[in-house]
Write a structure and sequence with these properties.
The complex is a heterodimer of chains A (743) and B (587). With 743 residues, chain A is an alpha+beta fold. By secondary structure, chain B is α+β, with helices and mostly antiparallel strands. In chain B, the strands form three sheets. Chain B has an eight-stranded antiparallel beta sheet with strand order 1-5-4-3-2-8-7-6, covered by helices on one side. A five-stranded mixed beta sheet of chain B has the order 11-12-15-13-14, with helices on both faces. In chain B, strands 9-10 form a two-stranded antiparallel ribbon. The chains are: A alpha+beta (743), B alpha+beta (587). Chains A and B meet through helix 9, strand 15, helix 20, helix 21 and helix 23 of A and strand 8, helix 9, helix 10 and helix 21 of B.
């Protein structure tokens, strides 16, 4: 298959003699030899010599040294150790230190000096520095210009994914690769998958509607989505024109108590608004078994907007990887606070927890309303479902959630990722913000998710490999349109298909071997059928309907105690008031119903297979260190970090797996692998059981499985003329030319 | 027998009433009980219930709510009892307790007989501050019997023997057997072989409080050593001591690997210089050839006390949501933690990577010096990362070398404004916790062990942290008359063991000392907040996995045996019929 082909070609690349043709579909644009990649912090002795290549897919560095010092533990099949996909290049900075000149390069620009140095700022927080002291000045310049040019594609169809997918259609007959790429994750591009979700959540009064087939009603909605049964196609068509970009309300999820989660764009015409609101609400009420009310939650009013989020992200990046390590230590906490990143993460978690309260505690349906319903709504709806439904905490479940609430709901990945680098104003790391929120919950409940934070990090990095249907487009319609155009221009017969078959990111074998994919598995996961030991006895968790609903039943009763008994509250506060003169420090205890709900929930042991709420005290939100600090050499804890615990846990989990297999063999049952699961001889765990209790491998560190080696240490640039320039802070966001500014 | 310690409740709120308390109470002084007392909980509001005070504890129970609310604390944690208001406004009387473990408690009586109110206050004042009232500290009355005598955990000779001492360069001296050389030092000291006891006495005259440089730890391979002492009595005139200079040279010579000696002065250089006015100071590099002096910029006990006071303001009872991080920063608590860890890291790095011996001191060598040497030893020597090894480390570097626990904590003393009080030991435990966060598999003990140690630092239930020096403890017969905390801990090790622990031999830990990794120890400082729920413990899950593995192993073994038996019997019978007892799997 393709992936293997690419892998082979990568192997070849490692051979210094093979340089001309990198891979079949990948074209070398420019290259320059005798380039030094800066590695060492204090000296150049660890630097690597090699060839710098710009292709139509990536920036590649091929070392001359066969025994390369740098060893990543996990290899990406699409990328070599030193490679950066062009889509991951955020900014290209060329420097001539002799002349004291620097320039940030954009597309189609000229460079008046010969660069002695090239610095690539990457979207995944890496900063990579090359020196051209021994390289041919002209070819160095050409490569720099090529990287700048090719990292600013003028058109989505110039993104490498099109070449990559188009290649499948050339020459060879289609090999029957299904659009899911052999992946079990439902993509929600067919009515049957929505039907299954309706059944799974027991949403009896909801139906799949195909009114948008061919994207005739709204360009940004999927072709199939779910609506209340009481709304006919005709009504929907009629209503659609009043919603922003004709986005009819979308059903997201049903609570076992019948309450529904719905997302909706705003209604432009104030005259229509009330009428329409009423109709939508009454339809949702009709779909509720208890005919409960509907509450609207205005996301735009209650949450930071995309500019705020982008600005916060820029600041965190500044603090974590750009500012000199030592200098930023002193004010680390207050800088973190002033970036507001964690504050925003908390705001989204908090808002989602409030929605959870409405669905779970108040038994009402909730509409998440946002101007266009393509940004904040994606974050909140997925977080709410993650908190309420343990299914979404499994790997497949999580992937289906992203597919449903992000890809199909029309989150503008192309614009928000700014793949075309056309409009910086549209750029916003909303999906990453969501992943950070997931990480916070994971950090508080390490056994509740089937996947690890390595998985979340790799998923985030995959946004910058422009091959996957998941992250390439603004909506499904755009994928179709671009596919047809591209197919036409390249004479690709699409046949029966509506669009090119871009692999979804969920086809992880595109990027990683099965062995490496094991790093996604959480050895602690308490999932369906997983067992747990209480008081020495082994008991198994099974998400039976009864089990699930019993936790649900328990909740409202206590809640009712808390809420309905208004008398208690009054009595209590009056007492506090009376005592006040004597206790100036004592604040009146006033709780909102949500706070009461949260407190009540937190006073009981958590059922990892039931509802899960994050602790929202600011002291309980943490920096996602693996993501933010993995490339910072100074922050790397050698032989330490959470991975050393993960290592031990994996080993025991692996042993348990082996014993279970043995038991099955004794029983005479051949191990049946569930569909999609790796073959049973393949362990779920990355770290295998060992007979002796041996120390963790030397290569483990807080950055594992990533390695900060080869990324710029800020120390090395301190004291060079460049340092002042880089400390000028603005560089990351500005695309201004800063040339001729002698330092 | 397993012993349930009448300790502080680790998690808050304590749910349920412990029956065992009644038993224990019988041994304690007759309790004084008052009904209709209001506890003003900063989280829940006012709670009406019964308050009981004994000579060891304060117990409050409110039964009108579900679940029953219980507050149970040893009086040792009380730093100060204050009356609030008078019989003024509506006739309510109330008082507040300021506690050493980062919380304050407030009680009120609604219109109560004056005598009862008075007696509660009096009983509290009496038993919370026994020392001020000429009463014995409760540890002397406790008398619980545990299977192990915790006072035997540390044996100086045995510990030095473990380190390979004495050897050709270092000897054990008896010169301080009766605490005559230095009354704040232990009786067993390790000094360079070629320095006589007479010379030691002359060195003692030049070091503050006679605390001469003595060996704390020796590297098993390079023979580089960590030695500790107090400041030299240099004074404004820059006095020198030939004996002291010779002594430091001898320490350097004992390590063949290096021709240098590093002197780490824990203080900021300004403070060290200011000490000259009081006759102290630091080693001049002119006088001490081949020695390099490094200041570690760690502030004094007063700065640390103030920092903790601010921290308490920020975390108790509630944290302000909007400025959490900048408020935390303004306490400087983590900054101090960072400086201490950074100092220890430099020491460990010099010894391990530089193979160079180091001398560590501050002013008196019993606060910052203890923090630095014990943390460096924790990094360098895996033995101290075991539960028993850690106990040895505390007994050695803190207790035997005279960290003044009595003064720093103020056990049973009502003088809460005493300038000698300071959270030096708390900072050390915080640093250890930071290390366990960075190396989750490198320590045999868990977080609960650290919290328990701190709880009993104040509880006065055990004798471990009483007195200021080894000499005082011997004089007061503390080991004879009280129970050691380690007796209790070691009687239920399971509770305190980190299941993830891997015993690496010769594995040196170099933590990353950066604000990027340091964090506030929420599980300690914010534990009274009911909204603080301990993280779903990884350790618990790991234990569950281990139990499951054991269960499976048992089943596999059973089946194996069965198969063997069957094949043996089928050979005899010659019949291959299968008859397997049904086995249930639980997957």
């Amino acid at each position: 298959t393709l992936a293997i082909m690419i892998m082979i070609s990568r192997e070849k690349k490692l051979n210094p003699s093979v340089t001309k043709k990198v891979m079949g579909i990948e074209i070398v644009v420019n290259e320059v030899n005798f380039v030094r990649k800066c590695i060492g912090a204090d000296s150049s002795q660890d630097d690597l010599w090699g060839k710098l290549i710009c292709t139509n897919f990536k920036v590649s560095f091929i070392t001359h040294d066969a025994l390369c010092k740098q060893r990543f533990q996990v290899a990406n099949r699409l990328l070599g150790e030193h490679d950066v996909p062009l889509a991951c290049v955020e900014q290209v900075v060329t420097v001539n230190d002799a002349k004291g000149k620097q320039k940030v390069l954009g597309s189609n620009q000229k460079l008046k000096f010969n660069p002695t140095e090239l610095i690539l700022y990457c979207k995944d927080f890496r900063i990579i520095r090359f020196r051209f002291d021994e390289a041919g000045p002209e070819s160095a310049k050409k490569v720099c210009l090529a990287i700048a040019h090719y990292s600013h594609p003028a058109d989505p169809q110039l993104l490498f994914g099109f070449e990559y997918v188009g290649k499948q259609y050339y020459g060879k007959r289609m090999n029957g690769m299904d659009p899911g790429g052999g992946v079990q994750t439902p993509l929600f591009d067919r009515p049957s998958e929505w039907d299954r979700e309706i059944k799974r959540t027991g949403a009896a009064e909801w139906r799949v509607c195909s009114v948008n087939e061919g994207y005739t009603v709204s360009p940004s909605l999927p072709e199939y989505f779910v609506v209340p049964v009481s709304l006919a196609d005709q009504d929907l068509k009629q209503y659609s024109c009043f919603f922003t970009t004709h986005r009819i309300p979308l059903w997201c999820w049903n609570h076992p108590n019948g309450s529904a989660l719905v997302r909706m764009a705003s209604i432009a015409d104030p005259l229509q608004q009330r009428k329409l609101d009423q109709r939508i609400c009454s339809a949702i009420t009709k779909s509720h078994p208890q005919r409960s009310d509907v509450i609207k939650s205005d996301l735009d009013k209650n949450l930071p907007n995309i500019q705020d989020i982008q600005a916060a992200f820029g600041k965190v990046r500044q603090i974590c990887v750009i500012e000199p390590f030592e200098e930023s230590e002193e004010k680390w906490l207050s800088s973190m606070e002033s970036s507001r990143w964690l504050e925003y993460v908390r705001a989204f978690l908090k808002h989602s927890a409030e929605v959870v309260y409405l669905l779970e505690g108040k038994h009402v349906s909730v509409i998440l309303q946002e101007e266009e319903d393509r940004d904040l709504g994606c974050v909140v709806s997925s977080l709410v479902q993650l908190m309420l439904d343990p299914h979404f905490r499994s790997l497949i479940g999580f992937q289906s959630l992203v597919q449903k609430e992000w890809v199909m709901a029309g989150h503008r990945f192309l614009d928000r990722c700014n793949h075309l680098k056309k409009n910086d104003k549209d750029e916003c790391p909303l999906f990453f913000l969501f992943l950070d929120c997931v990480w916070q919950i994971m950090n508080q409940y390490p056994a509740a998710f089937e996947f690890t934070d390595t998985y979340l990090t790799v998923l985030s990095d995959s946004m910058w490999i422009p091959l996957f249907s998941t992250f390439l487009f603004n909506c499904p319609q755009q994928r179709t349109e671009n596919s047809i155009d591209f197919a036409k221009s390249k004479c690709i017969p699409l046949g029966e298909e509506k669009a090119l078959r871009f692999p979804p990111v969920w086809d992880w074998s595109q990027q990683f071997t099965l062995k490496d994919q094991a790093l996604f598995n959480n050895p602690m996961y308490v999932g369906k059928g997983a067992t747990c030991v209480q008081n020495g006895a082994v008991k198994s968790f099974r998400r039976t309907k009864k089990n699930y609903s019993s936790t649900l039943r328990g909740m409202p009763t206590s809640l009712r105690n808390g809420l309905m008994d208004g008398d208690t509250l009054t009595r209590r506060s009056s007492l506090v008031l009376r005592l006040r003169p004597d206790f100036s420090q004592i604040r009146e205890v006033v709780e909102s119903p949500t706070e009461r709900f949260l407190r009540d929930w937190f006073s009981r042991p958590a059922d990892l297979q039931g509802m899960l709420l994050p602790q929202l005290l600011p002291s309980h939100l943490a920096l996602w260190r693996l993501y933010f600090l993995r490339w910072v050499p100074e922050a790397r804890i050698p032989k330490g970090g959470p991975v050393t615990a993960y290592h031990k846990l994996s080993q025991v989990a692996d042993e348990i797996e082996m014993l279970q297999n043995k038991l099955r063999q004794y029983k005479g049952v051949t191990p049946v692998s569930s569909p999609g699961a790796p073959p049973s001889d393949h362990s779920r765990m990355y770290f295998k059981a060992s007979s002796t209790s041996e120390p963790s491998p030397e290569y483990l560190s807080s950055s594992f499985p990533f390695s900060p080696v080869g990324n710029m240490c800020r120390r090395s640039i301190l004291g060079t003329p460049l340092s002042k320039f880089l400390n000028g802070a603005k560089i990351w966001l500005s695309t201004e030319t800063l040339a001729n500014e002698s330092v | 027998a397993t012993w349930v310690c009448p300790s502080l409740s680790y998690l808050w709120p304590t749910v349920g009433y412990s029956d065992q308390w009644d038993d224990l109470n019988k041994r304690f002084s007759p309790p004084l009980t008052a009904k209709d007392v209001t506890y003003i909980c900063p989280y829940i509001g006012a709670l009406r219930g019964t308050l009981t005070v004994t000579n060891y504890r304060l117990f409050f129970k409110c039964t009108d709510r579900e679940p029953v609310f219980v507050l149970d604390l040893p009086l040792g944690v009380v730093s100060r009892v204050e009356k609030i208001g008078g019989a003024s406004s509506r006739g309510e009387v109330s008082y507040g307790l300021v506690c050493k473990d980062i919380r304050n408690l407030r009680f009120a009586h609604k219109q109560m007989e004056d005598s009862l109110r008075k007696s509660i206050f009096e009983v509290l004042m009496k038993f919370a501050f026994p020392v001020s009232n000429g009463l014995p500290i409760f540890a002397f009355e406790y008398g619980q019997v545990y299977p192990e005598n915790g006072w035997k955990v540390y044996d100086a000779q045995a510990e030095y023997k473990r380190q390979g001492l004495p050897n050709e360069s270092w000897r054990i001296t008896k010169v301080n057997d009766h605490y005559e050389l230095c009354d704040t030092y232990p009786s067993t000291l390790v000094v360079p072989v070629n320095i006589s006891d007479e010379e030691l006495k002359r060195v003692a005259a030049f070091r503050a409080k006679g605390r001469i440089p003595v060996l704390s730890w020796i590297h098993p391979e390079s023979q580089a050593t960590v030695t500790r002492c107090s400041q030299p009595m240099v004074g404004v005139n820059g006095k020198r001591s030939k004996d002291d200079e010779k002594y430091l040279q001898a320490i350097m010579d004992a390590n063949a690997q290096s021709h240098k000696l590093f002197i780490f002065d824990a203080r900021p250089s300004v403070n060290a210089a200011a000490n000259k006015m009081k006759g102290g100071g630091y080693e001049s590099e002119d006088a001490y050839q081949n020695a390099e002096l490094v200041f570690l910029d760690i502030h004094n006990i007063h700065v640390m006390r103030e920092s903790l006071r601010k921290l308490k303001e920020v975390v108790y009872p509630n944290i302000e949501e909007s400025h959490w991080l900048s408020n935390l920063e303004s306490t400087h608590w983590l900054e101090h933690i960072k400086l201490i860890l950074a100092g220890a890291l430099r020491i460990a790095d010099k010894v391990e990577s530089g193979k160079t011996s180091v001398v560590v001191h501050c002013s008196d060598g019993w606060d910052r010096t203890a923090q630095l040497t014990s943390l460096a030893m924790l990094m360098l020597d895996g033995h101290y990362r075991t539960i028993r090894g850690f106990q040895v480390l505390l007994e050695k570097e803190w207790l035997s070398f005279g960290h003044r626990f009595q003064l720093r904590i103020g056990h049973g003393d009502k003088n809460h404004t005493d300038a000698d009080r300071s959270p030096v030991f708390l900072q050390f435990i915080d640093c250890v916790w930071q290390m366990t966060r960075q190396f989750p598999a490198a320590f045999e003990f868990n977080e609960y062990f650290l919290v328990t140690t701190l709880d009993h630092l104040y509880s006065c239930l055990f004798g471990t942290f009483l007195c200021n020096s080894e000499q005082q403890r011997v004089k007061e017969e503390v080991p004879k008359k009280t129970v050691s905390l380690w007796a209790y801990i070691n009687s239920q090790l399971e509770e305190f063991t980190n299941p993830l622990y891997v015993n690496y031999s010769n594995h040196v830990l170099f933590p990353v000392v950066s604000m990027r990794h340091l964090e506030l120890w929420v599980g300690y400082y914010i534990r009274w907040n009911p909204r603080m729920r301990p993280q779903e413990p990884v350790h618990q899950r790991y234990k569950e996995l281990l139990a499951k593995r054991a269960e499976l192993q048992k089943r596999v073994e059973e089946l194996q045996r069965e198969v063997t038996n069957r094949s043996a019997s089928s050979e005899r019978a010659g019949s291959p019929t299968r008859s397997i007892t049904p086995v249930q799997t639980f997957v």
